[in-house]
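Researcher: Quick one. two chains, 638 residues in total.
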Amino acid sequence: MSERAKTPLIELHGLTKTYGAGDAAFQALKGIDLTIQQGEFVAIMGPSGSGKSTLMNVLGCLDAPTTGSYRYQGIAVGSLDTDQRSLLRRYALGFVFQGFNLLARTSSLENVELPLLYRGDSRKERHRKAVAALTSVGLATKLDSRPSELSGGQQQRVAIARAIVTEPGTLFADEPTGNLDSVTTRDIMELLTRLNQDRGITVLMVTHDDHVAATARRTVLIKDGLIESDLVRT
Amino acid sequence: MIWNAFSIALREIGRNLTRAFLTVLGIFIGVAAIITMVTLGQGATLAVKAQISNLGNNLLTLRPGTGFGSRAASAGVPSFTQKDAETIGEQISGIAAVAPVRTASQSTIYLDNARACAVTGTTPVYFGINKWRLAEGRFFNDADLRSGAAVCVIGDTVRKELFGGEDPVGARIRIGRASCEVIGLLAAKGQAGMGDQDDTIIMPLSTLRRRLIGKTSSHDINQISISAQDGMDSNALINDITSLMRQRRGLGDNQDDNFNIFDTRQIAETLGATTQLMTMLLAAVAAVSLLVGGIGIMNIMLVSVTERTREIGIRLAIGATAREVLLQFLVEAVTLSGVGGILGIVLAFGLCAGLAHLIQVPFNFNLRINLIAFHFAAAVGVVFGYTPARRAARLDPIDALRHE
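Model:
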């Protein structure tokens, strides 16, 4: 086996995250140990206030841990500065949010091209990749539609296309179906599963819906800033 | 990276054109105001200078009295003699021509039209000194002057008043108690800020004396028009003429001059400097409006950063660095102010062309002020765009994404 395969994709040791200081300090994560391998599909669950969103933000390099170590593909994320974390997100990570977070008054195509713009891809490359990504999420006919002209499920598909257009190693999905009805939820989960199985993209998903979580092969339950259970379906 | 930021900024501007237009309105008007003020001001300066030089270049006018304007004291001061004029011509070097001038107000009549008119009696060189050109006919000549012929040349205003649409040349008009043939029509000079120059009748000095007023005394010359040779220092000339005239008028060392010399070039320079000063003042006021326009940009950009917090969050989450966000907003501000500047230049061009025509000053496109105003506008964009841009760049992606 190659060296890369042995290195876990994500490796957390004693990770804590504290907000504020002094009396007002609040410890959202109290010491997380977690290892995730390339290609996994992990659901992170927990009641609100459990710290699962904080964990997601730290894993997604949007936030830095207070103490403990976080290695992403062997890179010590804790020692990166804001800009380096930005670059890591740009080249290795993709994000899907509960509220879709598409740019308003902007076509699907332009929304999906956005991350490529920051990577400095040429206009032709951007167009080709964005069309391919939108096609792979089943929106080949909605290239010029603006978010306001799309249904919730379609908007989330655009968001997924935007997340995968850079061919990231990991896709972070924060309550991706939180705003969707059950039929659309199933479609989106099928799409995520397909991306995970066909393309080998690691998917980390925060959810509070057991049905949604059941799609994932592994479920991590967070409670009061600690991992309460970590189950892998067989 | 700059180009990237530029293309992102352009997309953002294109997405909300109304907002963009409102943002640049201040810059747009400010730039147009500066350019219009300066261009029209310079046109006015040129116009004033052109009109003054119309009076005659290197023209010195010698008049009795101690000064020009309200403080002038000419009562009891003797006028000049024809001999004075001749002596100046003979004894002072650097003079191109000298003409004695006697003016008298006379009633003029042609058919049913009557008009009080200033009649000038002088010598033929007067036309050259004062830069008169003919529209028609001829000037009077030395032979007319010697014989005291009953001929005259009239200005355009006199033609309009007396003749209307009729051709005046060859007609006879009554001036005072004499009948006089119109032999020439002067080309119009227009207003010169000192009365209508075209409201004039010019005839040989001898004719005026013999036929109209009769020779009263040898001191009957109201003024002496002198033109200097090109390149002559008019101050030296004025000094020479002054000492000659003091001598001829028998003034002692402790007596003030009882005559004065009016230098058109000096007046032209003074008036030119005054209009230029006015121009600078107006431009300064316009510059303030440009500054206010810059504050407008800052205002809207700050609002825009708040309004677009979520968008900034999205950009940061998908991997934009703080520097890139800063650059995007800065480039947006500069692009907006630059576009405002260009629009302002276009508006100013139209305004200048229209207004210059309206107030009758020449319109010269002034590249320098256009460039200055444009760069000033762009600089305003940088200065006032920086604070909002920095605020955007300092946003935390998680907070920004949560922003409603």
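Residues 264-307 of chain B form the longest helix (44 residues).
Researcher: Thanks, that's what I needed.
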